[in-house]
Design a protein that fits this description.
Helix content of chain B: over 70%
CATH topology of chain B: Rna Polymerase Sigma Factor, Chain: A
Largest sheet of chain B: none
Number of helices of chain B: 8
Shape of chain B: globular
Order of helices and strands of chain B: HHHHHHHH
Radius of gyration of chain B: 18 Å
Number of domains of chain B: 1
CATH architecture of chain B: Orthogonal Bundle
Structural class of chain B: mainly alpha
Low-confidence stretches of chain B: 99-108
Shape of chain A: rod-shaped
Oligomer: heterodimer
Helix content of chain A: 55-70%
Number of strands of chain A: 0
Radius of gyration of chain A: 44 Å
CATH class of chain B: Mainly Alpha
Largest interface: A-B, 31 and 43 residues
Chain lengths: ~160, ~180
């Protein structure tokens, strides 16, 4: 009468003798399949970064953390100018050009084409030496074509 | 286990020696398992060869989650189950007179030289119900835990254990009766 342990041992230790020639042939077939898959798998395609990331849960979490960090960094460390950028109307003219345009428009409103001519004459006059102590009002008066408008802006 | 992990790591990087070592390490147990499940040594050889061929083709993409032996044993068990189903269908068709009768003799260039002991054991195991046969062979030859066998058979651990115990008792009776003869 055999016990269960004996039966287990007997099942486990069933003797097997392998024909070495046939075994070589079988392993040769397996090796051929292996070489084929190797040629396919290890073709020079370069590393697939997405595959590396998706292979392990740790790399997945690390990649997600990196993305979150990058997004939060860019949203918090932007300069005020960059933050307001969408609200600013794009300025294509230089300040000098803008000032010239405004001064000409004011002159036209003030006195029509004659005033514009006068403004142009003044602009093309040779630059005379100025006092160091010239006030903002004087500069504005010159910008407006006469001293009257500067008087108006004074409170 | 660590050895297997290292072998699989090397195998995935195209190392032929790693494949050779895996083949030599598990070939015999897988042959025993397949022979017990199929009760035909020729079919068992084919199944094991197919399993190793598929395994070799997965080089570079193979991902080991459990034990390598368990994985290979599961492949053999699934393949054996498919073969048994196909054979059952062929036999049914033959009984109905729809299929030609084919020879079931082994091929002249068989892998196993002396399979007498294996044949006897396979015959004894083949007298068990298939679920019990699978539980015994997967546990003893495949080194699988009852939890893994339960997952494969879609039953609880307790059921897998009970199938194993019942099968073993029955096998004991079969083998004892053979000795008495």
């Amino acid at each position: 009468m055999r016990s269960s342990e004996d039966i287990e041992k007997r099942i486990k230790n069933v003797n097997i003798v392998i024909d070495s020639e046939r075994n070589k042939k079988v392993f040769g077939n397996i090796l051929r399949a292996f070489e084929k898959s190797k040629a396919k798998e290890f073709a020079p395609t370069g590393p697939n970064i997405w595959r590396i990331i998706s292979r392990s849960p740790i790399t997945k979490i690390a990649a997600a953390a990196m993305i979150i960090l990058a997004v939060s960094f860019f949203s918090t460390h932007r300069t005020p100018d960059e933050q307001e950028q969408p609200e600013i109307v794009e300025v294509k003219k230089s300040p000098v050009e803008m000032m010239t345009a405004i001064s000409l428009e004011r002159a036209f409103r003030r006195g029509g084409i004659e005033a514009v001519e006068e403004q142009c004459k003044q602009a093309f006059k040779p630059i005379r030496p100025r006092l160091e102590s010239s006030s903002i009002n004087q500069i504005l008066a010159e910008f407006n074509g006469n001293g009257k408008s500067s008087e108006r802006t004074r409170p | 286990m660590l050895d297997d992990k290292l072998l699989v790591w090397k195998f995935n990087r195209g190392n032929v020696n790693a494949l050779s070592r895996i083949y030599e390490k598990y070939r015999d147990d897988l042959l025993r398992l397949a022979a017990a499940l199929l009760n035909d040594i020729g079919d068992a050889e084919d199944v094991v060869q197919d399993v190793f061929l598929n395994f070799a083709q997965s080089a570079g993409q193979f991902k080991l989650t459990g034990s390598l032996k368990g994985y290979l044993a599961t492949c053999v068990a699934n393949s054996a189950r498919n073969r048994n189903i196909a054979m059952y269908r062929r036999m049914t068709a033959r009984w109905n007179g729809n299929a030609p009768v084919t020879s079931n003799l082994g091929t002249p260039d068989q892998w196993l030289m002396n399979g007498e002991e294996l044949r006897k054991m396979s015959n004894a195991i083949s007298q068990l119900p298939y679920e019990q046969r699978e539980a015994i062979t997967l546990h003893l030859y495949g080194g699988m835990k009852f939890r893994e066998i339960g997952v494969l058979q879609e039953v609880s651990i307790k059921t897998a254990q009970s199938r194993y115990r019942c099968g073993l008792d029955r096998l004991r009776l079969i083998l004892n009766s053979e000795v008495q003869k």
